Amino acid sequence: MSASSSRGGGGGDREAPPPPSSSRMRGAGDGGAGGVWPEHFVEAVATRIATDSAASSGRLSAATALANLFQVCTTWRNVSRSELLWRDLARRIWGRDVLRCATWHEEYILCHRTARNFYARRAVYTPLQVVDAADGDADAAALACRCLAISDNHLACGFLDGSVRVFGFHPTRHVSTFYPHEPRDRLGRFSQSVSGAALVGPNKLVFASMDGDVHVAVIDEPSTPARRAHIGNVVEDGPMLSFSGSDRYWVGLYAGVPGRALHVWDGVTEALTYIGGSLTDLDSVAGWHALNDPNESVGRVRVSARGPRHYACACTRRAVEVYDLEEPGVVVHGEEARRGGTWWVDAMDVWVERVLTVDGRGLARVRRVVGMVEVRRFVVRGGGGVGMEQRVVGCMNGGYVVTCAGGAVRVWDAERGVVLYGFRERVGEVVCAAADDGHVAVCSAETGLHLWSF
């Protein structure tokens, strides 16, 4: 395994967007016209200024706005020591609910620094080996990557043979490989291939196969085999096309049997709580074909989680639907592709409370999950001719969109809708991609697995 630094060049060396022209408060002083302001009031002002700055000029500008605010006076500067303030800002601006550092102030600084690195393309590139000594003479085709899942500490890669390989980030290395609980009768050549995986908490892996089996594994116990939490029934439900999950819910998207598109599990009790939905009813034939053609891209589902509410966003070539997982039978938003158009299923992703979709014209839209209110739209590739047939793979994190088409991997500013840079490394045609605020991972059938750490 080798690693090299990938920095600078192109648009990668530019500075962060400037802060608002005036975020300095006047007339407050230690007493001001109205006397000393209570600490909780100053915290509220700081939160408002930071979030307004992030909304108008990007998340990186919030730090400058806060620095100007804390220079007003000694009393206001003392508020900068409030852990409650930094915890609230880390959640509001960076979507962080889990503490990785010693304090929330340090957590905010880490998030800001990582985002600056992401903006400026300061990353360490590492090609990852997916075949280890235990694989022996494994069939390369069987180790074709089907899905990626990423978290603060791990990268999980699901393969055509039903296995999931997990890599750790500190340092970057292969940690463990998990296989389905036990072989059983299969329907279709690729029915055991991995449909999706979720990294839950610091140490838990949940993954599902196309035949509907769901497995749970503990990452730091590689000697303990994965246990089967749910036995699938592909004849009754159809193939599972996609799988996603959080600590609260797991969701599978199926096609093949009408009225059974969505399956929802309680992530705590592991009980199946809902079966229903008609999103994939028109894709039943394509769903059955997927059992013998792993390149058949029919549908995708992702779970959005922030605070107490969880949503499932599901996409086929014909439509996009959003479900409130507290009431999974209710479609809170539905949208069909324009007449004669399609969605790019592999260019649909969710990050916290935002969803990325790309249609057949190459138009990318970043929207809020609730209400599907549009935040930004931009064209990720030119239309017409051969370009219209290029497969688009996409993913996103809190502030950036990553698109892969025609062998090129590009990073876009999701707030402004402009391309920032493309990675120099040649990766070939990408089949799947995943990103969080500190990493981008892509897998290519030609060149294997690639990781950029920011």
From TrEMBL:
Residues covered by region (Disordered): 1-33
InterPro entries membership: F-box-like_dom_sf, WD40/YVTN_repeat-like_dom_sf, WD40_repeat_dom_sf
PANTHER family named among the record's database cross-references: TRANSCRIPTIONAL REGULATOR STERILE APETALA, WD40 REPEAT PROTEIN 12, 37
Entry protein name: Transcriptional regulator STERILE APETALA
Species the sequence originates in: Acorus calamus (Sweet flag)
